Structures are given as structure tokens and as C-alpha cells.
């Protein structure tokens, strides 16, 4: 859909809470969606609402101009400080749940007949007009043991609220759409799957274009890569076990490099990484810049991403866009956009993962042709256009 095909003005209030904190996956989604909606003139009026208030004009401008690694404010508000401790404080959960609905109901009431509200991160205020909520995954519901107890209870409540008040649900993948329909008993017309996009920074690069490799002491196409936070559903323990098994059996010497945030409930993951490091067979880089990540993707032998559960699996798409094959999970969201060079495995089978690693290590290095992959069509502009089509169905007349 182009801006000329819009049949009526789209007046949107976009939940911008993810933009107030250091960038996360949902933060990147929110910002890229915002930029694409703005740059393609897909909305006639756009307001940003976060932390129980509308953002000031200068913050709105910053959201459209700031680098993707930044956020809108460095000084947390009182409500942001409450949110930061929600994961482990039940009293904070209760206070937040009482304060935010009242603020939202008061400040949003005047827009119920003119605007629709889109929450990009599950959390929907008490807006009395039409609403959209993006459920990126059902990890909280399917694997509650992987999350802090207070977070599970909080997210169960806010997700149920979004469904019961009749908001339209957007998911990042068809597999999650099916889960949402079954779990909440929704009809298909109440849920829309819209794949995410990937930025132009992710592209195939030759060795000379991967300048950060020397900083990490790596060689082009001579290491395996994992990207993601250190948490149980990422399957890091099995990935490391499979890598060690494959290396012991086949004798290759390429390291396993892990990049991403610290995550939670990850004592076993940290132990496995420590064992890997003590062997001298790999290391954990922590969070890296987007440019550094793009170069790591483009120079890896393969991305190891057989997650137990993902709502979309953006690293797999970013690797594909970078020309690098991925070993990932069969029947998952990643399988929806996998290409011929990717390998789909049972994420619970260490030996199956090890066999795929061995095949990648012993074969010739592969550079995927972008033109022959789903990634060529999966852009943030496409995500925004399909999201705007949902808005059109709900927009007040």
C-alpha cells in the first residue's frame, strides 16, 4: 500500500515506552515502525505516548532522528524506576498496575473518537477507542519457568487485558498467531501476523569490509556465531554442548562467539560459557554495536540459532540478509522465512545440532544470494505498510 492508496486519514497514538530505555528488540521494532510510518506518510497525525504522558515535541523529533542504539531520555522518571524493578518486586507490580490505568484513562479520553492506539509491547493503557497490541511472543505463557515470577504474573494480566478489551492483536509470525488464537480463543480476523523487517546495515560483506574482526581476533568465515540474550529459551547450553561435540569429533579449530545482552535466570548458561572460554574454544562479547554486529554476521561461518522458542527470531533474518546461513529450529517462527542454505534442526536434540555444525565446518563456506531469499522482501517499510492496513480497518470515521 502506498500513501496514495490510503482511503481515510490514519490518526495514531503510538505507545513509545520502549523508546525511553536503552535499545532492546522491542525498542528496535518500535523505532523502525515509527520511522517507516513517518517517512512513508502512512499516518496523518501521529502522537507518542509513554510513561503515562504524551511526549513533548522535542522528544518526538528525537525519536525520528536519534540513532537506533540511543533512547529518548537519560534521566529515568519515577514510573520508569518502578518499571525497572518490576521483575522481582511484587509491590512494585501492584503499584504500577494501579497507577498506569488511571493516568491513561484520564489523559487519553479526549482521543477515543478520533485516534486509534497501538501498543508495540503488550502493555495497553485504558484507552476507550479502537486499539492494536503487538504480542511479540507467548514465551511468558508457554515457558513461565524461563522468566521471573513477578514478570510472569504482570504480563499474564496485561496481555489478558489487551485481549478482553477487544484490541486487535498483531504478531510477528504465523506460528505465534496460531498460538494466540488457540490460547485466547480468538477468531483469525482478530489477529494479524506481520513479519518484521531488517535494516540496510545488514548486508553481505567481503573480508576487507569487516574491519572489526581484527578487534575480536577473528578470521573471516572461520568462526561460528550466536546472537541473543543469555536466557534459557535461547538454548545456549545445548548449542555449546553441540559445538563442543562437533569440534571434538571433527577436529576443526574455529571458535564459537556469543554476542548479546546479559539476560536472566542464566546460571547454567554462564557456566557453559565459562567452560567454553576455559577451553580456549570461544568467548562471550556481551552487547556489541549495530555496525559491529553487522560485520560479525557477514563474516561468520554460520549463525547458531536453534532457539527453544522465538516470537520471530530477528538474528536469523539479519544473518540471512548478511549472506550467512543459519542453523535454526524446525517448526519455529524462523522456519517461516528460512532459505535453502539454512539448516532446520530439532532444538532439543544436541546431536542433531552437532551434525549440522559439523556439516557447516567441513563443507565449503556459503554466501547466500540475497535475491533468492525471503529477506529481500522483508523490510521495515513492508512491516509498516501491513501495520497501517490494520489501522485502516479500525480507524474511527
**Looking across the biggest beta sheet, what order are the strands in?**
3-2-1-4-5-6-7
CATH arch. level architecture of the largest domain = 3-Layer(aba) Sandwich
> What is the domain total for the residues?
2
Residue runs with pLDDT of under 50 for 5 or more positions: 67-80
The CATH superfamily of the largest domain appears as: Glycogen Phosphorylase B
Tell me the distance between the termini.
20 Å
* Helical/strand content category: alpha/beta
Radius of gyration: 21 Å
- The CATH topology assignment of the largest domain is Rossmann fold
Supply the number of helical segments.
14
Explain what you see:
The chain has helices at 25-39, 57-65, 78-84, 90-108, 139-142, 149-164, 174-184, 213-216, 236-250, 267-279, 290-299, 314-321, 350-362, 380-394, and strands spanning 11-15, 45-50, 53-54, 116-119, 131-135, 168-171, 191-193, 224-227, 256-259, 282-286, 302-305, 326-329, 343-345. It is 40% helix and 13% strand. Helix 1 (25-39) links the parallel strand 1 (11-15) and strand 2. The two termini are 20 Å apart. It has two domains: 3-197 and 379-394, Glycogen Phosphorylase B (Rossmann fold), CATH 3.40.50; 207-374, 3-Layer(aba) Sandwich (Rossmann fold). The strands form two sheets. It has a seven-stranded mixed sheet, with helices on both faces. A six-stranded parallel sheet has the order 10-9-8-11-12-13, with helices on both faces. With 397 residues, it is an alpha/beta fold. The protein contains 14 helices and 13 strands. Helix 1 packs across helix 14, helix 9 (236-250) runs parallel beside helix 10 (267-279) and helix 9 packs across helix 13 (350-362).
Amino acid at each position: 500500500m502506498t500513501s496514495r492508496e490510503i482511503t481515510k486519514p490514519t490518526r495514531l497514538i503510538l505507545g513509545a515506552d520502549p523508546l525511553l530505555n536503552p535499545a532492546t528488540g522491542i525498542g528496535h521494532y518500535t523505532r523502525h515502525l515509527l520511522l517507516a510510518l513517518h517517512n512513508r506518510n502512512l499516518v496523518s497525525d501521529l502522537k507518542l505516548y509513554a510513561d503515562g504522558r504524551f511526549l513533548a515535541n522535542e522528544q518526538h523529533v528525537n525519536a525520528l532522528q536519534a540513532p537506533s542504539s540511543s533512547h529518548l531520555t537519560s534521566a529515568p522518571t519515577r514510573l520508569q524506576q518502578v518499571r525497572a524493578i518490576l521483575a522481582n518486586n511484587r509491590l512494585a507490580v501492584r503499584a504500577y498496575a494501579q497507577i498506569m490505568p488511571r493516568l491513561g484513562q484520564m489523559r487519553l479520553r479526549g482521543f477515543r473518537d478520533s485516534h486509534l492506539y497501538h501498543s508495540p509491547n503488550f502493555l495497553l493503557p485504558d484507552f476507550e477507542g479502537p486499539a492494536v497490541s503487538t504480542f511479540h511472543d507467548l514465551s511468558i505463557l508457554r515457558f513461565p519457568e524461563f522468566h521471573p515470577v513477578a514478570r510472569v504474573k504482570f504480563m499474564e494480566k496485561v496481555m489478558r487485558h489487551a485481549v478482553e478489551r477487544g484490541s486487535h492483536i498483531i504478531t510477528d509470525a504465523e506460528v505465534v498467531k496460531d498460538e494466540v488464537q488457540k490460547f485466547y480463543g480468538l477468531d483469525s480476523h482478530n489477529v494479524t501476523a506481520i513479519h518484521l523487517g531488517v535494516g540496510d546495515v545488514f548486508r553481505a560483506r567481503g573480508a576487507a569490509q569487516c574491519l572489526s574482526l581484527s578487534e575480536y581476533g577473528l578470521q573471516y568465515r572461520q568462526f561460528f556465531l550466536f546472537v541473543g540474550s543469555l536466557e534459557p529459551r535461547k538454548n545456549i547450553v545445548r548449542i555449546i554442548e553441540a559445538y563442543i561435540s562437533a569440534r571434538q569429533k571433527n577436529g576443526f579449530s574455529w571458535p564459537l562467539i556469543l554476542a548479546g545482552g546479559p539476560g536472566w535466570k542464566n546460571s547454567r548458561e554462564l557456566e557453559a560459557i565459562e567452560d567454553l572460554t576455559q577451553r580456549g574454544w570461544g568467548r562471550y562479547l556481551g552487547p556489541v554495536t549495530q555496525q559491529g554486529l553487522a560485520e560479525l554476521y557477514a563474516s561468520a561461518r554460520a549463525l547458531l540459532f536453534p532457539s527453544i522458542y522465538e516470537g520471530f527470531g530477528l538474528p536469523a533474518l539479519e544473518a540471512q540478509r548478511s549472506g550467512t546461513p543459519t542453523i535454526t529450529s524446525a517448526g519455529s517462527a524462523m522456519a517461516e522465512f528460512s532459505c535453502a542454505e539454512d539448516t532446520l534442526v530439532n532444538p532439543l536434540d544436541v546431536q542433531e545440532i552437532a551434525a549440522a555444525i559439523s556439516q557447516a565446518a567441513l563443507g565449503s563456506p556459503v554466501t547466500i544470494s540475497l535475491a533468492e531469499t525471503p529477506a529481500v522482501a522483508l523490510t521495515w517499510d513492508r512491516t509498516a505498510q501491513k501495520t497501517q492496513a490494520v489501522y485502516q480497518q479500525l480507524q474511527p470515521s
